[in-house]
Amino acid sequence: MNKLDLALLELIQKDASLSTGELAERIGMSKSACWRRLQKLSHDGVIRKQVALLNQEKVNLPLTVYISVRTNEHNDKWAAQFQKVIQAIPGVLEVYRMSGDLDYLIKAVVEDMKGYDRLYKQLIKANLSDVSSSFVMETMKQTTELPLA
Q1: What distances in angstroms separate CA 38 from CA 11, 27, 53, 124, 136, one per listed residue?
Q2: Torsion sign, CA atoms 8, 11, 14, 19
Q3: 149 found inside a domain
Q4: Do 63 and 97 fall within a single domain?
Q5: pTM
Q6: What value does the CA radius of gyration of the chain take, rounded to a whole number of Å?
């Protein structure tokens, strides 16, 4: 990638709704060249997808929870079952297999504590040995922008 690609990526990370013409103008290139670069970046998997970021509170999902999971099972059968369970829970946004003291870290959003309880009851269908949850009290920084420069 060159400087124009990075500039283009910086712009669309901030506002993916900018038109190809607006992007081209801001980085000083032709509209068709800009469109080709965007297509290549998408084709190469650099741009995975373009989405709208919603306000959690406005869609009645104000409570963010991080769930630490430990399991005594470390085999393909258990992992497949765990994957099936987490894919079926709509409030689960992110799941990471971790190094260190915990096995998995889950980020989820729910409407309230009753919503968390429903999520928890779905989650434990995966035969977990230890589940610990922490609730976000204040969001101090939140971004989806990767540092490219």
Answers
A1: 12, 13, 20, 42, 36
A2: negative
A3: no
A4: yes
A5: 0.90
A6: 20
